[in-house]
Amino acid sequence: MLLPSKKDLKTALDVFAVFQWCLSALLITTTVIVVNLYLVVFTPYWPVTVLILTWLAFDWKTPQQGGRRFTFVRHWRLWKHYSDYFPLKLLKTHDICPSRNYILVCHPHGILANGWFGHFSTEASGFSKIFPGITPYILTLGAFFWVPFLREYVMSTGACSVSQSSIDFLLTHKGTGNMVIVVAGGLAECRYSLPGSSTLVLKNRSGFVRMALQHGVALIPTYAFGETDLYDQHIFTPGGFVNRFQKWFQSMVHIYPCAFYGRGFTKNSWGLLPYSRPVTTIVGEPLPMPKIENPSQEIVAKYHTLYIDALRKLFDQHKTKFGISETQELEII
Hints:
Blueprint: H1 6-42, H2 46-58, H3 71-74, H4 77-85, E1 88-92, E2 102-107, H5 114-120, H6 127-130, E3 135-140, H7 150-156, E4 160-161, H8 164-172, E5 178-183, E6 199-200, H9 207-215, E7 218-225, E8 232-234, H10 241-253, E9 259-263, E10 270-271, E11 279-283, H11 297-318, E12 331-332
Parallel strand pairs: 1-11, 2-5, 2-7, 3-4, 3-5, 6-12
Antiparallel strand pairs: 7-11, 8-9, 9-10
Helix pairs in contact: 1-2, 1-4
Membrane topology: Multi-pass membrane protein
Enzyme class: transferase
Subcellular location: Endoplasmic reticulum membrane
C-alpha cells in the first residue's frame, strides 16, 4: 500500500489553506442562513436566532472601531500553508518608525486580493518581524461584517470596515504604531486583473490622500508583483450581450462581474483556486503629508500627483526583477 509522501501532504495542506479562505465567506454565510432558517421554521429554538441578531445589533459598530483581533488566529499554522502555496514574499525598502501612524496603499487589487490578505491579515509573511512595533489594520468591504460568525472570523485577523469613520478611529483613538491598509483600486480594478497587466484604477481615487492630509500621516506606496497573474479572465466581445450585462451590473452595484478562472485541486486542472505563482510585495518609502484639517481640492490633487509619482518610481525600480519589460509602465486610469 502506497502512502502519500511528506511533499504530497504538504501540497494538499497548501491547497486546503487557500481553498478554505477563498470559499469561507460563501460557506459561512450559507451555513448561517440555512441553520437559522431551520431553527426558526422547524424547531422551538428560535430564541437562539433572536439572541444572535441582538448581539449583531449591539456589536454593529465594532468593525468601525478597531475591530476585534485575536493574535493566535493571525499565527495559525494554516496561514503558513496559505503563504507557501503561491509563495508570498513581503519586502520593505525602508524602516517604519513605530512612533507614528501610516496609511499603506496597496496596488493592484487583483481578483481576490490574495497577497494582501496573506501579508497583512496573517503573520505568514512575518509582518511583525519585518515591521516591529507596527500594528496592521487591513480595511475591507463592510458587507463582510453583516453576517454573524463570518464577521468574527474576519475581524479576528485584524480586519476592519473600510469607511471614513473607521480610518478616523484607527488614526486618532489607537495611539501610534498603527498602519491602516487600503486597496485603492477596490473591486473596480478586478476587470483589469489579467496576467502581465499593470493597469491601476487610481486617477479619480483620492479619498485616501484627503484622509492622510487631515490626519497628517504618511502614505506608503506598495506594489505586489504577481498579484494579477493568479487568475485568468475571459473577456467577452465588447458590445455583446454579456459585456452589456457586465456594464449594467456595474452601474447598478459598482461591482464588475468578472468571468475569472484559475486551477482546481490538482495543478493542471481547471477551477476557481488561484494559480500557484509567486507574489512579491514591495513596501515603498513613506511619503510625508502635512496636517491640513480641511484640504482644498487643489491641495488634494497636488499630493495625489506626488503619490502617483512615488508609486511609478517604486514600480520602475523593481519591475525588471519580476520579468516585466523595462519599457512597460503603470497605466493609471
